[in-house]
Amino acid sequence: DRFHAVRTGGDDLFRTGGDAMLNKVFAEDRAGMHVWDVLLTRGDMFLPLMKRKLLASYRSPETKKIPADLFDKNGYWTGYYVNPYTLGYNTKWVKKDEVPKTYEELLHPKWKGQKISVDNTSYNLLGGLITAWGKDKAIVYFKKLAAQEPSVMRGDTNRVQLAAAGEFPLIISFAPIIQRAASEGAPIDWVPLEPVSTQINPLLLGAKFAHPNAAKLFMDFVLSEEGQKQLVGLSRIPVREDVKPQPARLFGGYKRIVE
């Protein structure tokens, strides 16, 4: 994904990867430059920015339509879309009734040896399971998963394409990316493994913004019904309860854990 810094007083938009975005924000802060008002980013950027006191609190009125686990009660972050980690499978390789339905079933010997694709940067997956299970149990599980000798590489879109092409029968990846490939006719589908570790992509308001009112209005729009429907058109999963993803099962019918 690419993430955005928005200067709401004009037409300025800076778009880049998460690490590059964080480095840019820190470099500008050291130089005394405060040129961004809102960040549309990933959840793991919240704490570094908070520690440097670069974030302001704002509780949008639109949060009344957003589940409580998807925004900060103190107003320092509000999710605007989410990415659930799910188990994808190549429908030519694996019959639907043979697909693992639990994390434990992934440890069956038949899935050993480059048969499960995992991303080596999926920190939120581990973080979510630590929240759900506790650190010790989650670490033990991931060691067992590593013993399955999975195919390890970076990049969800690329890995989903490889899974659809038959490079491996199973893949742990974001549901919207798998669903997009399936909707385009690729031989791939997905199932949720509960609890579904869910990555939040939040809106963050800058503490040293130049255009506070415009920044808040922009955040309100992104979280509004209209703004969230636009995200559905971009194959994202919205956070509002009254705006459903396509298909709706992308964010419903399973137990989730937010990370």
Walk me through this protein's architecture.
There is one protein chain. By secondary structure, the protein is an alpha+beta fold. It is built from eight helices and twelve strands. The chain has helices at 18-30, 46-51, 123-133, 135-146, 156-164, 175-183, 212-223, 225-233, and strands at 3-7, 12-16, 38-40, 55-56, 78-90, 116-119, 151-153, 170-174, 188-191, 196-206, 237-238, 256-258. Strands 1, 2, 3, 4, 5, 6, 7, 8, 9, 10, 11 and 12 form a twelve-stranded mixed beta sheet that branches. Strand 1 and strand 2 form a beta hairpin. Helix 3 crosses helix 4. It is globular and about 55 Å long. It starts with a strand and ends with a strand. The mean pLDDT is 91.
What is this structure's SSE topology?
Blueprint: E1 3-7, E2 12-16, H1 18-30, E3 38-40, H2 46-51, E4 55-56, E5 78-90, E6 116-119, H3 123-133, H4 135-146, E7 151-153, H5 156-164, E8 170-174, H6 175-183, E9 188-191, E10 196-206, H7 212-223, H8 225-233, E11 237-238, E12 256-258
Parallel strand pairs: 6-7, 6-8, 10-12
Antiparallel strand pairs: 1-2, 1-3, 3-10, 4-10, 5-8, 5-9, 5-10, 5-11
Brief account:
With 259 residues, the protein is α+β, with helices and mostly antiparallel strands. 31% of the residues lie in helices and 23% in strands.
List keywords for this structure.
single chain; 259 residues; alpha+beta; 12-stranded mixed β-sheet; 8 helices; globular
**Helix-residue proportion:** 25-40%
What average pLDDT do the residues reach? 91
**Quick one: how many beta strands?**
12
Enumerate how many helices there are, as a single number. Answer: 8
Question: β content, as a range?
Answer: 15-25%
Biggest sheet overview: 12 strands, mixed
Name the shape in a single word.
globular
First-residue to last-residue Cα separation: 17 Å
Ranges with pLDDT <50 over ≥5 residues?
none
Radius of gyration (CA) equals 19 Å
- Sheet/helix structural class: alpha+beta
Note the run of SSEs as H and E: EEHEHEEEHHEHEHEEHHEE
